[in-house]
Amino acid sequence: MSSLAARRRHPAALLVVLLLGLVLTGGLYAVFAPKNADASATGVASADQISEGKQLFLSNCASCHGTSAAGGPNGPSLVGVGAAAVDFQVGTGRMPMQQPGVQAGRNVPQFTSQETAALAAYVASLGEGPAVPSKEYASTGGNIARGGELFRVNCAMCHNFAGSGGALTRGKYAPSLMKVNERHIYEAMLTGPQSMPVFNDSNLSPQDKKDIISYLKYIESEASPGGHTLGNLGPVADGLFAWTIFIGLLIGAAVWLGKKAA
């Protein structure tokens, strides 16, 4: 017994126990850790799809992003941005960009959904990045009330409380979120395009993102019993309407009364 006690008091005993604890903790985490819900259920892209995407990239994107997608003077590197970033930028018509500018705006997509998927597969093959989200989370059906709270805390300062968009600095702007595909809203939160911050699963869980999407789609379809919304832009739009209509009527009345007095 005294020999066993002496071994327990050996200076290396504490280090061995710590190493065993770290190995055990790491193994248990690898087994039981929740899987990333952002991963697309479509599986690994085929070699033919990646080859098609490469040809499309070389023909339409390489002039700015470089032949190896490593970036250049006119475009950033795409290595590691993932399929979600490509699906968002190309699927919303922002890329290929029509002309240089401070910000790429939403436009008519120039590629079919199949070509967009091929481009996304090629860029995803260059480096690990966020995948196209599954339909389970890039959809409605979430908690609208909670989504509204999350939106007001994380998004409303730029996109307006109703998702109508707003101005930023240096000619940039937060675009309107009305009539935007649910998948693209999810991808924007996941990848943080342009001036937008990234909301990964540590910031907003997949369920949080689904709740926000549900709130935005509810706002989009909600009726306005109080009258015209004026774009939900707040007091600026209301003031402009009052100035244009009512002040104009007052000026017209003053001119009419002046002519009668003459």
Spatial sequence of strands, sheet with the most strands: 1-2
Proportion of strand residues: under 5%
User: Could you describe the largest sheet, including whether it forms a barrel?
Assistant: 2 strands, antiparallel
Poorly predicted runs of 5 or more residues: 34-42
What radius of gyration results from the CA coordinates?
27 Å
Mean pLDDT level: 85
Strand segment count: 2
Q: What's the total helix number? A: 11
Write the H/E string, N to C.
HHHHHHHHEEHHH
- Oligomer type: single chain
Helix content: 40-55%
Shape assignment: extended
Assign the structural class, choosing from mainly alpha, mainly beta, alpha/beta, alpha+beta, or little secondary structure: mainly alpha
Measure the end-to-end span: 121 Å
Could you characterize what this model shows?
The model is unreliable at 34-42 (pLDDT under 50). The protein is 52% helix and 2% strand. It has 262 residues and is mainly alpha-helical. The chain contains 11 helices and 2 strands. It has a two-stranded antiparallel ribbon.
